[in-house]
Amino acid sequence: MANNTNSTKKYVKYGIVAAVVIAVAILGIFLIGGIGGKNVSADQAIAEVSSDAVNGADLRIAVVRMDAIQTQSKVLQDLRKQKESYENKLRDELTKQQKALEKEKADIEKSQDVLSQEALQRRVVDYQGKVAKLQRDLTERAQSVDVSFQKALAQIQEKHLDPIIEAIIAKKNLSLVIDGRFARTGAEVANLDITNDVINALDKKVSSVKMETPKGF
């Protein structure tokens, strides 16, 4: 019986889904249809492709470090604090309920020699049900925190971050913006990195976006 009741601790799991990263990219969508009919050579296949290509002198490129925006912008710092506040509430509740379950488990173990086998089994089953419910409730609430966080992230990106980046692209007449986390540059290039421009503009535009209250809070 002790092994059975000790194993119930394994039912209690608690994890907060990590924050999902905001990414801004310029996407090219290529649709490749089914190729049927006779086979042709590569030269024949590209016969109608123009020989024109971008001129290096006309190409204007910038990089933006999304990781820096996530950690340094006021609105995203505030959003993470809101998420952490809900996570801390869950942790506190988990600790409190775990203590109550541990006390109940100890009481069950003490009553092994007093209760009948049937009565003892009912208490064990009831205890295991409480452990399973705690796990289920906390997992659902943790997921609801992440859902609310993701909604707020999407709102920030759609209403604030994307318009700012698009405005900077227009103002600087940029041809391409690359996520700086994936870019490699050989030397310092003036005006290549627009991260600080984005952060400063974002801070001026918005400092806080309230998370939707997660379910269960």
Describe this structure in words.
This protein is mainly alpha-helical and 217 residues long. It has one domain (2-205). Helices cover 55% and strands 4% of the residues. It has six helices and two strands. It has helices at 2-6, 42-45, 66-72, 74-110, 117-172, 195-205; strands at 61-64, 176-179. Strands 1-2 form a two-stranded parallel sheet. Residues 1-36 have low confidence and may be disordered.
List keywords for this structure.
217 residues, single chain, mainly alpha, 4% strand
Secondary-structure blueprint:
Blueprint: H1 2-6, H2 42-45, E1 61-64, H3 66-72, H4 74-110, H5 117-172, E2 176-179, H6 195-205
Parallel strand pairs: 1-2
Summarize this structure briefly:
This protein has 217 residues and is mainly alpha-helical. Helices cover 55% and strands 4% of the residues. The protein is elongated and about 90 Å long.
